[in-house]
Amino acid sequence: MSSINRRFVGVLFAAFALSTPLLAGAAGQAGVEWWNVPYPEPFDASGITTSLPRLHVEGNRFVDEHGNTVVLYGVNISDPDKLVKQGHWSKAHFQVIKDWGATLVRVPVHPVAWKERGKDEYFKLLDQAVTWASEVGLYLNIEWHGIGNLQTEVFQHPMHYTSRQETYNFWRDVSFRYAGVPAVAFYELFNEPTTYREQLGRISWAEWKVIVEQMITIIRAHDPEVIPLVGGFDWAYELRSVGADPIGFAGIGYVTHPYPMKAPQPWEEHWEKDWGYVADTYPVMAAEIGFMAANEPGSHNPVIADEDYGRRITAYFEKKGISWTAWCFDPDWAPQLIADWSYTPTKQGAFFRAYMLGKARRSP
């Protein structure tokens, strides 16, 4: 069944539920009987008047509908729930990102925020992100922002507490809701898999593959066109197992988070063997990168480096055809791209902004 047919079935189901006497008026009403609530509900894309080209995978490239190679670059925003609570969730936020020259926004959904706000209310935020991104011309990477071990279900911090069942259901709901929406190009399945030096228990690559392939199976059943992104171990840094034992699905990409402290010098030599070689066969997305000075707020976060890292890693990305999003377009979460809510760039923000604007000027 095509994605269009799947979407039609979902819409038909919702319409039937609302038109049936037993279910009429059930949706969105407080205190309604649980057996009368229609489920699931797709995203209403009727208000979106602009559309980006749909992306897919060919070999080791992301390509558009005409087969043109697409290399994306952009930023991570902070969790939409945080932005709402601080009064900075708006289309203008996305417009500033676009004005920086970005083509991609990574949207981190923290399990704690998903639970506390509730799925229905959180979907209202994601719906806005999808609408605003579509209108200003940005692709989205929606990611489940857990850090830890999904095999043992032990995580680094309470904000990341989740379970395999919750994770599978998250991707079921998200992939159904946004099926067929071109701006929603990527689903990053789990932010940073790690055992935290076995403090969170053990997990093998084979065990991680089973979990990942369950997620992709669920997503593909609802939206076969979206591109799932898979991170490796060491907080999504290394992909050394992919060469001998890749994920058993075509049309996916792999993720690395190559912060400067993840490898010794010379960086390029380690990047190549740790994750860069994967880009010769499959698409790779560096979903988090960044650097900061020792005197910047949050510098306890061990990502101390300077523009030399920025120049070298972007040059490496260009050589390998790797897409990327820098962390983080928020003055609170280190390493910050902006120093305040007037969008004053930090040192790394100025670097990545200049790079993206330069790329945008050279684009046809």
How would you concisely characterize the structure shown here?
The protein contains eleven helices and 13 strands. By secondary structure, it is α/β, with parallel strands linked by helices.
CATH class of the largest domain, please? Alpha Beta
Q: From the structure provided, what is the oligomeric state, counting identical versus distinct chains?
A: single chain
Strand arrangement across the biggest beta sheet: 3-4-5-8-10-11-12-13
Topology as a string of helices (H) and strands (E): HEEEHHEHHEEEHEEHEHEHEHEH
| Low-pLDDT residue intervals, each spanning 5 or more residues | 1-9, 11-28
Instruction: Please name the CATH topology of the largest domain.
Output: TIM Barrel
Spatial extent as radius of gyration: 20 Å
Distance between the termini: 36 Å
CATH architecture of the largest domain: Alpha-Beta Barrel
Question: How many strand elements?
Answer: 13
Strand content: 5-15%
Report helical residue fraction.
25-40%
Structural class: alpha/beta
Overall pLDDT level? 92
The largest β sheet comes out as:
8 strands, parallel, barrel
Number of helices: 11
Query: How many discrete domains?
Result: 2
3D structure, described in words:
With 364 residues, the protein is an alpha/beta fold. It has two domains: 41 residues; 308 residues, Alpha-Beta Barrel (TIM Barrel). It has eleven helices and 13 strands. The chain has an eight-stranded parallel beta barrel with strand order 3-4-5-8-10-11-12-13, surrounded by four helices. Strands 7-6-9 form a three-stranded mixed sheet. α4 crosses α5 and α6 runs parallel beside α7. It is globular, with a radius of gyration of 20 Å. The two termini are 36 Å apart.
